[in-house]
């Protein structure tokens, strides 16, 4: 083993590195400044001769190296992915780390949070991700400067009432715990901006949630939630709300009054309709109701002028309103796995659209206005009842990938292979002649043809089973 020698380090900190190298039987390398604020890089970072960051990830440590407590300028300490299960009482000298701001003890074997950690006066970020902690000690409220607390993946069943005393807390992550309920006092976390309570056993949310006036992001997916409190309408700064895989049967009216909301996801819920009041979400950019029971898309959908993503796959839609064409900022449209037979002419008004998913429907024709989609890069119309495509497809100059399989094709546009940016067309071999039109300038690799497009770029016509990983190593980004 080559020991680390750095004359720029002061003697005390230099001795710490030598001690750690003897302990670990390997060199402790100096980190780049770009990595100095992270806790998942092995090594240290120093400033003015003093170590400010120390990361000892994945070193099979079972005992906390006490010598670390002598690093008086240490700001960041990472001990992720070791075998630590306790900090001995002799380590109470940890309080000497009075400048420590970030402590990461994730992926260890702790069953309790050591009480003397709460005597670190400058601690702002504390991470105990995926340990075996089942309760939070009362002394946690001493951390008055704590801004971020990550405890997800622990078998925690309750948040204590005294939790609200963490007045500086901005982010709380208790994802994949075993929470059954939340205390009313959670609404007193007045500076909280992000909360992740996903993957728990929550059925209800307390009314006091509406007091979280600073909250911007709420993640509640994968909970058996049955209702959202009316007080949610008070969350005027909320930008992201994720309610995927809950037991909600409708879109709560309290949500439809959140005029700062930019992203709403309610995939895999028991929704059968979209309320008219959703038009009030005029700042919404992403709306996702995939895997629900929605049979009708309301006309007011066209009023959501700021939408860039509309995800309605795997529903029961039979009709798309003409107002869809008003969504001039829309970039991604997911309508696959529905019961659509007709696409409105107004779809040609989607002047920003780059990606359209219409596969697995019952569509019988594609409107001529499709040729107006000048920015379209990806289109999947597989598994429909299409026999031909409009000649206007030749105007899709940006198109890179076209999926045509599982349709009863009778004819295809003569110039489809001349699109300047086309790279992949997925189509069964029995229909390849409809594309080639007698062209023999290709290489046949069995289930893949290789040609050149009009820009002299490689173009592949592939059997549909080659979609995901084909012979040329291409992996579709749209799977």
Give an overview of the whole structure:
The protein has two helices and 21 strands. The protein is mainly β and 479 residues long. The C terminus is likely disordered.
Q: Please estimate the helix content.
A: under 10%
Largest beta-sheet characterization:
21 strands, mixed
Task: State the distance separating the first and last CA atoms.
Answer: 47 Å
Number of helices: 2
Compute the number of strand runs: 21
Structural class: mainly beta
Q: Uncertain spans, ≥5 residues at pLDDT below 50? A: 468-479
Series of secondary-structure elements, N-terminal to C-terminal: HEEEEEEEEEEEEEEEEEEHEEE
Identify the overall geometry. globular
| Strand residues, percent | 5-15%
* Mean of pLDDT: 90
Instruction: Round the Cα radius of gyration to an integer and report it.
Output: 29 Å
Summarize the structure.
The protein is mainly beta and 479 residues long. It is built from two helices and 21 strands.
Protein topology:
Elements: H1 11-24, E1 43-47, E2 50-55, E3 76-78, E4 102-104, E5 125-127, E6 148-150, E7 171-173, E8 194-196, E9 217-219, E10 240-242, E11 263-265, E12 286-288, E13 309-311, E14 332-334, E15 355-357, E16 378-380, E17 401-403, E18 424-426, H2 432-436, E19 443-444, E20 448-452, E21 458-462
Parallel strand pairs: 2-3, 3-4, 4-5, 5-6, 6-7, 7-8, 8-9, 9-10, 10-11, 11-12, 12-13, 13-14, 14-15, 15-16, 16-17, 17-18, 18-21
Antiparallel strand pairs: 1-2, 19-20, 20-21
């Amino acid at each position: 083993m080559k020991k680390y020698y750095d004359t720029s380090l002061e003697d005390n900190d230099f001795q710490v590195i030598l001690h750690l190298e003897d302990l670990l039987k390997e060199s402790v390398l100096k980190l780049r400044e770009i990595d100095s604020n992270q806790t998942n890089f092995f090594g240290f970072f120093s400033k003015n001769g003093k170590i400010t960051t120390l990361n000892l990830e994945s070193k099979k440590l079972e005992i906390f190296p006490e010598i670390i407590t002598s690093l008086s300028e240490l700001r960041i300490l990472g001990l992720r992915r070791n075998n630590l299960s306790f900090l001995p009482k002799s380590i109470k000298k940890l309080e000497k780390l009075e400048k420590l701001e970030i402590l990461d003890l994730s992926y260890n074997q702790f069953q309790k949070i050591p009480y003397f950690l709460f005597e670190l006066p400058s601690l702002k970020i504390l991470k105990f991700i995926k340990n075996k902690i089942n309760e939070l000690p009362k002394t946690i409220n001493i951390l008055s400067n704590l801004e971020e607390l990550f405890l997800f993946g622990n078998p925690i069943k309750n948040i204590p009432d005294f939790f609200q005393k963490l007045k500086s807390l901005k982010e709380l992550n208790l994802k994949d715990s075993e929470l059954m309920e939340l205390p009313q006092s959670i609404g007193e976390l007045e500076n909280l901006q992000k909360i992740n309570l996903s993957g728990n056993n929550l059925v209800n949310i307390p009314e006091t949630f509406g007091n979280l006036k600073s909250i911007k992001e709420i993640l509640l997916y994968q909970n058996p939630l049955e209702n959202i409190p009316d007080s949610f309408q008070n969350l005027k700064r909320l930008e992201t709300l994720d309610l995927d895989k809950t037991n909600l049967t409708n879109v709560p009216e309290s949500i439809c009054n959140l005029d700062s909301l930019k992203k709403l996801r309610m995939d895999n819920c028991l929704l059968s309709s979209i309320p008219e009041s959703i038009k009030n979400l005029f700042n919404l950019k992403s709306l996702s109701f995939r895997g629900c029971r929605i049979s009708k898309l309301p006309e007011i959908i066209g009023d959501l002028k700021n939408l860039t993503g509309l995800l309605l796959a795997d529903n029961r839609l039979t009709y798309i309103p003409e107002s869809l064409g008003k969504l001039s900022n829309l970039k991604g449209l997911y309508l696959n796995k529905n019961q659509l037979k007709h696409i409105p002419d107004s779809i040609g008004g989607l002047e920003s659209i780059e990606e359209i998913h219409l596969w697995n429907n019952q569509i019988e024709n594609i409107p001529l206005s499709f040729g107006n989609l000048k920015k379209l890069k990806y289109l999947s119309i597989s598994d429909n009842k299409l026999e031909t495509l409009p000649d206007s497809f030749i105007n899709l100059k940006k198109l890179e990938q076209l999926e045509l399989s599982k349709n009863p094709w009778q004819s295809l546009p003569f110039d489809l292979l001349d699109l300047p940016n086309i790279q992949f067309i997925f189509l069964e071999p029995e229909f390849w002649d409809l594309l080639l039109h007698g062209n023999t300038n290709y290489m046949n690799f069995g289930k893949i043809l290789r040609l050149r497009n009009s820009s002299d770029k490689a173009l592949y016509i592939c059997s549909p089973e080659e979609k995901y990983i084909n012979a040329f190593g291409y992996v579709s980004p749209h799977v």
